[in-house]
Amino acid sequence: MSWPTEPLGAICEIVSGITKDSKKQGDDYREVPYLRVANVQRLQLNLSEVKTIPAKESTIASYRLEPGDILLNEGGDRDKLGRGWIWQGQISECIHQNHVFRARIRDGKAIPKWIAYYANTNEARAYFLESGKQTTNLASISKKNLSALPVPLPPVHVQEIIVAEIDTQLSRLDETVTTLLGIQAKLKQALASILKAAVEGRLVETEAELARVNGIQFKSGGQLLVEISSIAKRRNQGMNMEASGHDEQLEIDGLALPIPPEGWSWTTMNAIASTVRNGYSGKPTDQGPVKILRISSVRPLSVDHTDTRSLPGIISDYGKAIAQNGCLLITRYNGNPNLVGVMGHYRSQDPVVHPDKLIRVELTSEMIRPEWIEIAFNTGLTRSLLQKRVRTTAGQAGVSGQDVKSMPVPVPPTEEQIRIIQEAQRRFSVLDQVEATVTTSLARCGNLRQAILKRAFRGRGGS
Question: What are phi and psi of 27, to 5 degrees?
Answer without folding.
Answer: -65, -25
